Each structure stands twice: as C-alpha cells, then as structure tokens.
C-alpha cells in the first residue's frame, strides 16, 4: 500500500473549523479496492473522543452521499457531489502489458517504463484520495450537513457499515427515478420563474453545466495527447542513448548528450501534463459535478413549487366543494412552508457556490500559470 | 545548390545553383527540372560510379498518393506539406551529390545542373513502386546467393559491414519513434485547438466578470500553444524525421557499395576459374595433338590472364575506394547529425521561450480574478 504524503490537490477553498476537522490520513490500495483511513479531530460533544480514525471504502462514501440526497430535510442544499469511483483499470492493464513485453526491450527501457507506470499509478491514487477527502471536507464545512447523524456514524463507527453495492432492484428503481427526473427537468425548465434570481440561475446553470462538461472532455483529450508526446520523447531518449553507447566516437558522445537533453525535456513535459491534469482537468471535472448538484437543487425547488401550486389548486377545489377543507389547508400550508424553506436556503447555497467557484478557479489558474512558468524556465 | 519554387504545372522545381568553380560556365544559373530528371540522374550515376565503390546518394522516394493529390490541385495542408517535403528532399539530395568530390566531376552532374533542356529520363522504372531500399536489398540477396563465398582477408570490411547493418537497425527504431512523436504532436495541436474553443465558450457563460475575462485569456493562451505545437511538429518532421530517413537510405547505399566489392571479388574468382579451365583445355589439346586448335587455346589463355589481372586490380581499387568513401561518409554523417540536431534543439528552446511569454502575460489576469 502507499501512504498518503504531503499537500493534496484540494480544489475548493474551505475554512477549516476547529470544532470539526476531517481528513484522509492514509490509504491502502488492495487488489480491486482502496481503503481510506478517515481521521477526525473534533471538540463537539457528540463524539466519544476528540480524535479518532476509521477505515472506509468507496461504497460507504456513496452510501453517505445518497443518504443526503434522499433526505427531504436537505432538499434546499447543494449536496456535495460524490467522489468518483477509484479506477485503476487502465493503469493496471498497462503494467500487465509491460510485464508481458519485458522480453522485447532492453533492461534500461523496461526499468524506465516501469517507473513511469508506477508514477502514473501513484498519481491516480493520490487523486482519488484527494477527491474523497474533498467530499468529506465539504460536508464538514456545511453548517447543517456537518450535524447529520449518518455523517457522524460514518466518521466514528469503527466497524464496517455493511453497505453492499446496490442490488439489481435498487438499481432499477434508480433508473426510473432518473427517467422521471429528466422528463420533469424538461417540463420544469420551460416554466418561467417569477423570482428573477432563480430564473437567472436556472438559465445560467443549464448553459454553464453543458459548457463545463465539454471543456472537461476536451481538456482530458489534450492532456492525453500531451502525455503521449512525452512518452515518445522518452523512447527517443532511450534510442539515442543506445546509439551513443555503440562506440566512443565524437558523434557517439554527442548522441549521449542529446539523449540526456531529451530525457530532461521528457521529465518536464510529463510534469507539465500532470500539473495541467491537476489544476485544470480536475478543476473542470469537479465543477461539472458541483454544477450538476446545483441543478439538482433547482430541480427540487421546482418540484416543491409544482407541489405548492397543486396544493393551492386542490385547496380551491376543496373550498368550492366545501369538502376536506381542513385537510387541504394543512396540506397547502406544508407545501408552502417546504417551498419557502427550500427557496431561502437555495438562494444562499447558490451564492456560496458562485463564491467557491470563483475562488477555486482563481487558485487553480494562478497555480497553473505559475507551474507552467516554473517548468518552462528550467533550462 | 538550392532547389526553389516548386511549381505545380508539370511539377518542375527550379534549380538554382551558385558556384565559384571554374568548370561551370557562369557563377549563378538556374534550370528547371522534373522529379523524373532527378531519378534519371541517379540512374546514370549509380550505373557508372557504384562500380568504383562510390556511395551514390539516393534520391527521395516516389509517392503515388502525394503526387496524385498535388496533380489534382488540392490545396489542403497535407499536400502543401508534401510539396515542401519533396522540395527539401531534392535539395538535400543534390547538395550531397555536389559535395562529393568525384561525383561533382561527373559530366552527367554538370549537364544536370547546367543544360537547359534534358531528354526525358526513361529508365526510372527501377525506382518506381518498390523503392530504393527494396532495390538494394534485392541486389544484396543476389550477391549472397552466389555460390563462391568470399573469404575475407581483410576483417575491416566485415566489421564495417556489421557496424553499418547495426546502425541502420538503430536508426530505423529511432525513426519509428520520431514518426510517432510527429503524429502525437499533430494530435496535440488538434486537441489544444478544440480545448481553446471550449474554454472560450465557458468564459462566455461565466457570470463573474473577472473570471470570465480570465477564462477568455486562457483560451487565447491555448490558441497560441496550438501554434507552438504546430511549429514544433514541423520541426520534428522536417529536421529530425527527414534526417533519419535520409541516413537510413544512405546506409543502404553504403551496403550497396560493400556488395559491389564482393561482386568484384566474385568476378575475379570466376575469371580465375575460367582461366584454370582454359589451361586444362590447352593441356588436353597438347595431349590430343591438335595443333590448329592449340593456338586458339593459347590466345584464350592470354586473354583470360589479362582479365584476371584486370579484375584483381579492379577488386583492390574498389576496396580502396570503399574505404575512402566510408571514412568520408562518416565525417559527413557526424557533421550532418550535429548540425541538424543542434538546429532541432534550438527550435525547441525558442519554443520554450515563447511559451514563457504567453504564461507570463496570463498570470496577472488570473491573479486579478475576484
């Protein structure tokens, strides 16, 4: 397993609060699962100790996320997006292929490529840890979500939460839920909101989400091309090295020097690609997920509005017929209350979202530019 | 010698030569030549010179696809690239020919550079389709199949030949990777351009003014990066890849020389065995007492004795020439690789410096986000 070193690529600006601090202090990669050590420091009375750790797997993070989504009380908040599943398949496949092709390359080439792939594996590993950590930090920073009971259980309960992956039936239910959601989404998007703020946000988020999606995909492609070019430069360096070791003529010495230069170039290009990945690609991916979460919030608010409007219509009908008026009144009041509560918190959430987004982009773009300059200036 | 202005009509590049050598009529002159003329020159030279062991530089390959596109008049970037590639290759080919002291003396070369109109070269079939390398390899096989195997008294030739084969293999490997780099660099160009557009769109959507502007600026930086990648890909190709392609073919030409020497040896050996047979025939005639046929036999022996001496001399001479040629070639190669690789690395450095400027301009924009 790999221990989790140094500063993570946290791409959201969060105030750390002494009352509840969460981080992932360690992580272990085993076969096809990753075990995260979730470490908590808290002065809150809810916990038995002030500092403690538990081991969690990806499915348990998903369980926690889904419990927030399904909780009606949290309908008015942007639920921090779930971290993506750790995916080492591609990396593992490459390592396997390398092992199979060991006979067809020189010892040097093999060692070099192995180091490359191991570094790649480590980078993916670090990223997945960072993304799981960001999720927990977002929850811990949210004034309401941090008090959630499931969250506390997640942090403290030192046994397996026995959260098996969704079975077939549940997956099917999810599928239908999403179908209904998207159909509704179309309907809801068409209804113009009376409130200017929300109308603007709806228009903005729909467009923004699509464009962030596109930018994220294109940035991934660009970075992949960059990595491919760096790999080629690596092989050129090896090839020149072989040519240089054939003899001790001046030309051979020259080849060795050039090989060194290519090797340096390759290292720089790899780092540039890796930094672009962290500061740009990951940023875009994250805001793709967050903007989706924000859209989900708007959707829930729209649903609540529709429910409220339906309750109003039902009340009018009941009054007209003079039947079940009290029941209709209670129902209408509940819907009204629910809608207003969601609208109020949603407004604040969306404003916070914007603030976070601007801060995150600023931080990452500045760091990106600084890193690009740092790498380019190495002669 | 410079090859300039390839024109699409009849595809006749204009050849401009500048010289201070006395043997040419004037100092600066130019003629128009077709691609087939270049092939014709090679044919003539290789027939004459390679018999002496000279390394005759091979001309650039024929390309049916490339030529058809150009003939059809397509103006897309790949056919523009093809024309430039062809032009540069022809130029390098001629420069190698004229920098060779023996070849420069050859009247065919002079005629090629000076004469207004050249008769249409016809015997260029050998270089069509199969290409230069296949031709060399076929000839090599033929030499190897000959029944009399050469016993090498001079290990220099054997060692050198092995070196050449090794080097050719190494260069091929390197060429494959450089070709891969060229392709990936072109891919990077394309994906950077798409990314730039995407960022510009995102910047438009963003409702925070400062961030919106920064994203647009980032899009511009990426567009400039695309430009850099484009130039770098051209450098990868025209400087590095073509250098390797040239030398792979030159090394094959050198192998051809070694094969010529072996053929010369085989000719000598065959003559010796023929002489032996003639002597045996003479002896038989003496025995059988046929005086009239005897004179003819004696004449034949004299003829073949002369041939044996000639072929032995030829063999020694070709050996000396090959040695000289190899040394000269190695010097030229070292010079060539040095100058081209330095040029390539310089281009990379320039690229880096421009990159620095782009990002330095962007940084304050990013910091201004509020």
UniProtKB/TrEMBL annotation, chain A:
BP terms from Gene Ontology: protein transport; retrograde transport, endosome to Golgi
GO annotations of cellular component type: cytosol; endosome
Keywords: Coiled coil, Protein transport, Transport
GO MF annotation, one: phosphatidylinositol binding
Segments crossing the lipid bilayer: none
Keyword tRNA-binding applies: no
Family: Belongs to the sorting nexin family.
Protein name per the record: Sorting nexin 6
Source organism (scientific name): Cyclopterus lumpus
TrEMBL record, chain B:
Membrane topology: Peripheral membrane protein
Taxonomy of the source species: Eukaryota, Metazoa, Chordata, Craniata, Vertebrata
Record-level GO BP terms: early endosome to Golgi transport; protein transport
UniProt GO molecular function: phosphatidylinositol binding
Localization annotation: Cell projection, Lamellipodium; Early endosome membrane
Cellular component GO terms, alphabetical: cytosol; early endosome membrane; lamellipodium
Principal subcellular localization: other
Keyword Coiled coil tagged: yes
Pfam families cross-referenced by the UniProt entry: PX, Vps5
Keywords attached to this entry: Acetylation, Cell projection, Coiled coil, Endosome, Membrane, Phosphoprotein, Protein transport, Transport
Residues annotated as domain PX: 1-120
Coiled-coil boundaries: 157-184
PROSITE patterns for this protein: PX
Annotated family: Belongs to the sorting nexin family.
Organism per entry: Cyclopterus lumpus
Annotated protein name in UniProt: Sorting nexin 1
PANTHER family on file: SORTING NEXIN, SORTING NEXIN-1
């Amino acid at each position: 397993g790999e221990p989790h070193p140094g500063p993570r690529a946290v791409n959201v600006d969060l105030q750390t609060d002494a009352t509840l601090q969460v981080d992932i202090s360690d992580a272990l990669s085993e076969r096809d699962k990753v075990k995260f050590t979730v470490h908590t420091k808290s002065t809150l009375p809810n916990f038995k100790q002030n500092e403690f750790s538990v081991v969690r797997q990806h499915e348990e993070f998903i369980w926690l996320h889904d419990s927030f989504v399904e909780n009606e009380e949290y309908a008015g908040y942007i639920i921090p997006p779930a971290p993506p599943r750790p995916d080492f398949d591609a990396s593992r496949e490459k390592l396997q292929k390398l092992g199979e092709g060991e006979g067809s390359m020189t010892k040097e080439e093999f060692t070099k490529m192995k180091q490359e792939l191991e570094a790649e594996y480590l980078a993916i590993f670090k990223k997945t840890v960072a993304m799981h950590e960001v999720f927990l930090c977002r929850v811990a920073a949210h004034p309401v979500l941090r008090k959630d009971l499931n969250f506390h259980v997640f942090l403290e309960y030192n046994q397996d939460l026995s959260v098996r992956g969704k079975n077939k039936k549940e997956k099917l239910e999810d599928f239908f839920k999403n179908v209904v959601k998207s159909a509704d989404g179309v309907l809801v998007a068409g209804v113009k909101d009376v409130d200017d703020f929300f109308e603007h946000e709806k228009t903005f988020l729909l467009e923004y989400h699509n464009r962030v999606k596109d930018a994220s995909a294109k940035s991934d492609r660009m970075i992949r091309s960059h990595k491919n070019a760096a790999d080629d430069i690596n092989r050129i360096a090896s090839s020149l090295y072989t040519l240089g070791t054939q003899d001790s003529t001046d030309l051979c010495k020259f080849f060795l020097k050039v090989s060194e230069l290519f090797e340096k170039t390759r290292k720089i290009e790899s780092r540039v690609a890796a930094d672009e990945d962290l500061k740009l690609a990951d940023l875009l991916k994250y805001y793709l997920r967050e903007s989706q979460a924000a859209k989900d919030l708007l959707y829930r608010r729209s649903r609540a509005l529709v429910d409220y409007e339906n309750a109003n219509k039902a009340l009018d009908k009941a009054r007209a017929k003079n039947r079940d008026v009290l029941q209709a009144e209670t129902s209408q009041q509940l819907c009204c209350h629910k809608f207003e509560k969601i609208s109020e918190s949603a407004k604040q959430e969306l404003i916070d979202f914007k603030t976070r987004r601007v801060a995150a982009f600023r931080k990452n773009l500045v760091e990106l530019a600084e890193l690009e300059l740092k790498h380019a200036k190495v002669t | 010698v410079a090859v300039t202005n390839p024109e699409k009509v009849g595809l006749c590049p204009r050849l401009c030569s500048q010289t201070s050598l006395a043997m040419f009529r004037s100092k600066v002159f130019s003629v128009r030549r077709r691609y087939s003329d270049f092939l014709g020159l090679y044919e003539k030279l290789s027939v004459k010179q390679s018999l002496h062991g000279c390394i005759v530089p091979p001309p650039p390959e024929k390309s049916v696809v490339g030529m058809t596109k150009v003939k059809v008049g397509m103006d897309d970037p790949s056919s523009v690239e093809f024309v430039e590639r062809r032009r540069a290759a022809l130029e390098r080919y001629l420069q190698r020919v004229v920098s060779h002291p023996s070849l420069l003396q050859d009247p065919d070369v002079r005629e090629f550079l000076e004469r207004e109109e050249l008769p249409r070269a016809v015997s260029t079939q050998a270089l069509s389709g199969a290409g230069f390398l296949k031709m060399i390899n076929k000839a090599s096989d033929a030499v190897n199949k000959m029944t009399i195997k050469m016993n090498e008294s001079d290990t220099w030739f054997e060692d050198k030949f092995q070196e050449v084969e090794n080097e050719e293999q190494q260069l091929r490997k390197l060429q494959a990777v450089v070709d891969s780099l060229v392709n990936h660099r072109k891919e990077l160009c394309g994906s950077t351009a798409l990314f730039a557009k995407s960022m510009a769109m995102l910047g438009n959507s963003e409702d925070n003014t400062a961030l919106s502007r920064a994203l647009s600026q980032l899009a511009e930086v990426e567009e400039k990066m695309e430009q850099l990648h484009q130039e770098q890909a051209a450098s990868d190709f025209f400087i590095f890849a073509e250098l390797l392609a040239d030398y792979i073919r030159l090394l094959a030409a050198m192998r051809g020389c070694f094969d010529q020497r072996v053929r010369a040896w085989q000719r000598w050996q065959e003559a010796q065995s023929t002489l032996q047979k003639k002597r045996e025939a003479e002896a038989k005639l003496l025995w059988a007492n046929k005086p009239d046929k005897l004179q003819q036999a004696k004449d034949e022996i004299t003829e073949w004795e002369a041939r044996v001496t000639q072929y032995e001399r030829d063999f020694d001479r070709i050996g000396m020439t090959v040695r000289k040629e190899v040394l000269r070639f190695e010097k030229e190669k070292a010079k060539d690789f040095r100058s081209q690789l330095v040029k390539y690395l310089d281009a990379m450095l320039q690229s880096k410096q421009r990159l620095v400027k782009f990002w330095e301009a962007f940084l304050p924009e990013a910091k201004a986000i509020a």
